[in-house]
Sequence to fold (205 residues):
Amino acid sequence: MIQTFKLITFILCFLLSFPLISQNHQQIEKIKGSWVGKLKVQGIELKLVINISSNEKDSIIATFDSPDQGAFGIPTSKIILTDDSLIVKIKSIGGVFKGGFGSGLTELKGSWSQGGVAFPIDLQHQEKPAETIHRPQEPKPPFSYSQKEVVFKNYSADGIELAGTLTMPNEGGPFPVVVLITGSGPKTGTKSCWAINRFSYLPIT
Fold:
């Protein structure tokens, strides 16, 4: 009798949960694609993109792009999806998007929070992935100059390793040396900002 009761309880729980699973799957299918909007900060517009997909278990997956800053495919740390809202957290950059769906699941009206400050932003749904920025003027190998990666230790600062890229003409010399240091927080060695690798252009100017 007890075993029969447990079996009936299990079946009821499974049947009650199935419509919720099916409904969530349908919603994920509808919102798959890229959600694109422009964040306005101190007179500057930054394009932000949240890419929605799912895995083989029908679990929602999201990545984050900031194309104007040359950042793509940033993994998210937490996703909360309900019938009328979406929350996406990106722990690596301390950012959170919170938004509510408009009619037809084609628009998200919400806010982007980072560094304790929130900014309003609306995202529009695009089924196709958002276009990336292409800059054909950026130099590609083989270069007309020598380039190599260098690493050395600063023993006067507890042996901290300093790394960089050394570029120089292939012929002639001696040449003066210029040390270029990136600033304003974490950046790539080429000082990537607004989808431009600024230091990459200097050897050819």
